[in-house]
Specification:
Blueprint lengths: L1 E7 L2 E7 L11 H8 L9 E6 L9 E7 L4 E2 L3 H14 L4 E8 L2 E8 L6 E10 L1 E2 L14 E6 L3 E6 L8 H10 L6 E7 L5 E8 L3 E3 L3 H13 L6 E6 L2 E8 L2 E15 L13
Parallel strand pairs: 2-3, 4-6, 11-12, 13-15
Antiparallel strand pairs: 1-2, 1-17, 3-4, 4-5, 6-7, 7-8, 8-17, 9-10, 10-11, 12-13, 13-14, 15-16, 16-17
Length: 278
């Protein structure tokens, strides 16, 4: 199996494309757990399978995404940028528009610097920022100035706090995720000293603490605008780096880097089982 490793602000993904393998790849939760394991596998926050868009001439690639624990994720803002970079590199294109079909709907991505450079800039229309799950009966185990939920194909709970470092994400993240039947991503945010920006830390469902989250940055910007912290566009700084989010007619447009780490040949049969599975 031929695959590549990429990261978006150190949120890392393994990408396997049907178009660079001799036959369609049989990807799924077990393969994701094995490949993403950081001790027995290659290591990543998630596995992305880029399938051929059979019967969809308007689409370049179909995105299937699994978290490191094998759970299916509808969308990842960092992951989809990595997928677009992988497609551009496989086609030898420096600049390319990629249309990806995802569990959250079709997404249009503009890749700049795709084939020759390790780092690309990818701009993606992430779609409408919808309302997330309700908070009735949910106990959030820390003090927040504001709370809100949003949906970008995947669910988010955003909390405005005074001090990001005062919240122990390793403790509150699992508790908040477990409070929702389908799980949830938790973003804690605070405004930057310079107006118009946000600082963000994230707990991602099915993964844990990561250094960045693209959909989380979009959700946080949309809610922060409602709270009067930012205007229609914001720079969102995370431990792994920064992205820009623009809010246009209720839609979020995300711009950030995708970095190619390596191309790899892997024999899936040689990967050790995870917890006796496989």
């Amino acid at each position: 199996m031929r695959l590549s490793k990429h990261h978006g602000l150190r949120n890392d993904f393994l990408v396997v494309l049907d178009e660079v393998n001799d036959e369609p790849v049989d990807a799924g939760p077990d393969l994701a757990r094995r490949l993403c394991d950081r001790r027995g596998g290659i290591g990543a926050d998630g596995l992305i399978h880029g399938a051929r868009p059979d019967g969809r001439p308007d689409v370049d690639v179909v995105m299937h995404l699994w978290n490191a624990d094998g759970s299916r994720a509808e969308m990842s803002g960092n992951g989809i940028r990595c997928l677009a970079q992988a497609v551009a590199r496989s086609r030898g294109a420096r600049d390319l528009t990629v249309v990806a079909a995802t569990d959250a709907g079709d997404r249009v991505l503009e890749v700049s610097g795709g084939a020759a450079d390790a780092e690309s800039t990818v701009r993606v229309d992430m779609g409408e920022v919808g309302p997330g799950p309700g908070l009735d009966g949910v106990d959030v185990p820390f003090v927040a100035k504001e709370l809100g939920t949003a949906d970008l194909g995947n669910p988010h709970l955003v909390a405005w706090v005074d001090d990001l470092d005062a919240v122990d994400l390793s403790t509150v993240g699992p508790a908040v995720e477990a409070a929702f039947p389908e799980g949830i991503n938790l973003e804690i945010v605070t405004p930057t000293v310079a107006p118009g920006g946000l600082l963000l830390r994230v707990w991602e469902r099915g993964v844990g603490i990561t250094e960045a989250c693209g959909t989380g940055a979009c959700a946080a910007t949309a809610l922060a605008r409602q709270w009067g912290l930012v205007d229609h566009a914001a720079r969102v700084d995370m431990p792994g780096g920064a992205v820009t989010v623009e809010l246009v007619d209720g839609r979020a447009v995300l711009t950030g880097p995708a970095v190619h780490v390596a191309d790899l040949d892997v024999d899936p049969a040689a990967l050790p089982p995870i917890g006796g599975v496989g």
